[in-house]
Amino acid sequence: MDKTKTLSALAALGQETRLDVFRLLVRAGADGMAAGDLSTALGVRQNTMSANLSVLLNAGLVTNRRQGRSIRYFADMDRMKGLLAFLLEDCCGGRPELCQPVLDELACAC
Length: 110
Prior knowledge:
The chain has 110 residues and is of the alpha+beta class. The protein contains seven helices and three strands; from the N terminus they run ααβααββααα. The chain has helices at residues 3-13, 16-28, 35-42, 46-58, 77-88, 91-94, 100-106, and strands at residues 33-34, 62-67, 70-75. The longest helix is centred in the first third of the chain and has 13 residues, at 16-28.
C-alpha cells in the first residue's frame, strides 16, 4: 500500500459511523451484511449509510456484491492487512521482518 491509499483509508476510518460500519463488517466476517441491516444495526438512516459505505468503498476498505435487490458489504481484510503493514513498515529499527509475527497475529484467517 502506498501513502496516498493509506491516507484515504485512515481518513475514511476517521469518522465515527464509518469506523463503526467497518468494525461491524469485520465481526460479520465472510457473511458480510446487507446495507439495510447495517443501517438498522447502527441506527443510521439509509441515505446516510449509503454515503458512508461509498466513502469506505472508495477507500478500498470494503467490497460489495449484489444479492437480488440488495447489496451485501464485506470488510476487505487484505486491504486492512496492507494498511497495517504500511504503518509498521519501519518498525523495529527498519527491520520489518521482526514485525511480521504481529501482522500475522492481527490478520485473521477467516
